[in-house]
Amino acid sequence: MNKKKGRVFSGARPTGRQHLGNYLGAIKNYVDLQKDYDCVYCIVDLHALTTVEDTLNLKQNTNEMVLDWLAAGVNPEETIVFVQSHVPEVTELHTILSMVTPLGKLTDLPTFKEKVRMQPENVNYGLVGYPVLMTADIVLYKADVVPVGIDQAPHLEFAREIVRSFNHRFNTKVLIEPQMKNTVIPKVLGIDGKEKMGKSLNNHIELAATAEETKARVLDMVTDPARIKRTDPGNPDICNVFTMHKIFSPQADIDMVNVECRRAGIGCVECKTLYAKNLNQELKPFREKRSELASKKSLVDEILQDGSNRARKIAQKTMQEVREAVQLP
Length: 329
Ligand code: ADP
Prior knowledge:
Layout: E1 7-12, H1 20-33, E2 38-43, H2 45-48, H3 58-72, E3 80-83, H4 89-98, H5 103-108, H6 110-118, H7 125-140, E4 145-148, H8 153-169, E5 179-182, H9 211-219, H10 240-248, H11 251-260, H12 268-295, H13 299-326
Parallel strand pairs: 1-2, 2-3, 4-5
Helix pairs in contact: 3-12, 4-7, 4-13, 7-8, 9-12, 10-12
């Protein structure tokens, strides 16, 4: 086995079946990181409790998400895949870290303010502490590196501050300040061609959909709005179908669409049918693998059990060091 560069931690809320946006924006990166790092991927079910809608079907959503990860190439033999609440040490560390975290900073964070706007009827204490729990997740497993997109960068910077503050107050070096691994996260648009692809907007295409379902969703995709009649020339540069062709289609098809759309040589239905065919082709191995994994009924539970055993070993060691540093009697 080649020598790895360090440990990566990343957490994701259990959102069920994953879509193309999750794949291109997160899962693909999870798979790639395994080459160079020891990876710890956590399904953050406790974080999900801060919002009400996320708590529906937590178990099933976890199961579906893990199946997608595995089918896409997350390898549980090497990578630790586990559920946050299965390692309760994280809640103890969260409590301890909360003592060195200034409340004003938490309530000033734009993400907190955004949540208050979104769910004014449920501004719970957990929402305020979200970044502290996130910090506990990262440092409990002594992660060296956390992959973050630009919008998450302030959270990681904050996590680093909490770590510094803890180490300073208790005069220790027990906790590791995680490094940020800046990750370019493409913004995948939904089938409406306008908003970010996501479940809540129902503008998504699930990785595990059938070929027929995928085709139907693709045929619903919004194209260049200025192209009204089949005979109008289109502009692929502003068409989300062309963006997706560039990701999933062979070069010859991309070149053909690029030329023929502009001179109305092909229509949008033809273009979308071709994209659906190519997308289905690309997803075929994933879907076959997923069905095979899903047919093994207790597989995901076993993987998560093994993952939490491995995660807990690391967590218990960290907590022993933390308790000593804090001089808890
Ligand atoms: P979370 O709230 O935990 O980010 P999401 O389901 O919204 O949960 O996203 C999970 C991951 O998938 C995140 O890393 C996010 O950046 C990525 N992701 C979700 N939707 C998209 C999208 N449309 N384009 C790119 N990345 C996306």
